[in-house]
Amino acid sequence: MSIPYLRKTKTSSQLIVNGEPFLMLSAELHNSTLSSAKYMADDKIWQNMKAMHINTLLGSVSWEQIEPVEGQFDFSNLDAIILAAREHGLKLVLLWFGSFKNALSTYVPAWVKKDVKRFPRVHTLEAGGKRKTLELLSPFNEAAWQADAKAFAKLMAHLKEFDGQHSTVLMVQVENETGLLGDSKDRSKIAEQKFNEPVPKELLEHLQSKKNELHPEFQKRYPDLSAITIGQATWKDVFGADDITNADEMFMADAFSRYIHHVASAGKAEYPIPLYANVWLNFDDPASLDLTDIPVVVGGGAKAGIYPSGGPCPHTLNVYNFNAPSLDFIGPDLYFHEYESTCRNYRYGGQPLFIPEQRRDDKGVRRIWSAYGNHLALGCSPFGIDSLQASECELTKHYGLIHSLRKQILEAQAERPEDMLGFYFDDFTEGQQIKEKPWTKNMGGFEVIIERAFVFGKPGPGAGLVIHQGEGRFLCAGWGFNISFRSLNPKSTFTGILHAEEKEVDPESCELTTLKLLGGDETRSGEFLIMPNEDPDYGGFPIAS
């Protein structure tokens, strides 16, 4: 039996589990939930996750828990968790809270926290030039990454021994939202010394040789990299011409990515299942954030240090990809950033998309259709899922339908990504004006046009997926939309729906059977197919939609 791995597809990769493609219907637990098998032993938690149609849970494993005394490892809690997950038919993605968690080092063991001489911290400058020591391990400290790498290697070796024949654990996240908050770079003596040294020759050579393949966000910031002389230019020379904080950030990205690679490569040598890192995103323009009545500060930050400086943001991804080849991909924690552009940013270069954290509300859940359908996501993970009940959670409905169609989605993701379109329409507040374009895509010789389902009164939300199945046949799934078609044949004078059926699907086999014929009313005499909102009285009009 093979271990979980990523297999290349036509334009991306898929997760292969027990020899078959696996679509993660994932969600992330609160940070401390997985720390207690006793807490998780309450069947209400496991059964509630199953009732939501979740098949993969993300949860943390902290360094302090598995190595409370240096050199003494305890995996008893983790083993109990893995056994319980197997019993309930769920898979796991483990989050290694090692040296770094949300730009701090608060999950390291006490013996690391107390030994500041062996494990020095990052120093920053506050307003007025006041020096401050952060509870953040210096990424320039070899002793720190060696200790972390040793612990992570032990964890991965144990997973191989305990779970290698079962593949309960599918992937592992290495560290969490790495970077530095409160300043753009480390101001310790060793950091200042290294900052004034030349940019590593191999990194600069790589960036120059791949000039036309670098991420657009990198190219936008550093368009003239080819003019830099290798072997002499410092970080300030290469990246700080317009803003010294840009040089600071790239310097920290180099340090953190090398640190993470040391840790990840040690683990991968023991058990080479997929490894990834996640990112606390930045923003360049606050107007690009998807915020309504929410303070802009929750969106991250526009300056390095307001968001974690040195994390794998889009403009630093090339540094991470070069320095940390042990990572299979980088996944965005996607809460308030514009969903589509963020997904594109983290699909750049053909890397697979996995969203380790995202909004769990209705607005967030609707967006997973685009992640799976347009960006070929391995999975999307609403955060803090264990504090919601399946009967009251919007995720239950959406994951239930996606679960039933997982085989069709996986086949299209791998073989025919050009034949699939995911979409969503958000709810509107009273009196809000609708300003939206339809979702469109050319498939099978037709332009497919998805619009919000019309109802009298208040416009309703919607979400779903369309897959072209050949010869002008389309599979439509979801709620609250209308779908119409326009022939791309220049000789065509009319395009209409010839025949439409409502299908029911077996959730285990994914086999579709006809439930009823959809006549002229449901297709407006062949003009467009109506996939209504579930509430027939939505919008307050006295005639049912």
TrEMBL record:
BP GO terms, sorted: carbohydrate metabolic process
Cellular component, GO annotation: beta-galactosidase complex
The Glycoside hydrolase family 42 N-terminal domain covers which part of the protein? 44-198
Domain DUF5597 as annotated: residue spans = 395-529
Instruction: Spell out where the chain crosses the membrane.
Output: none
One example GO MF annotation: beta-galactosidase activity
The UniProt entry's sequence similarity note says: Belongs to the glycosyl hydrolase 35 family.
Task: List the protein's name.
Answer: Beta-galactosidase
- From which source organism is this entry? Neocucurbitaria cava
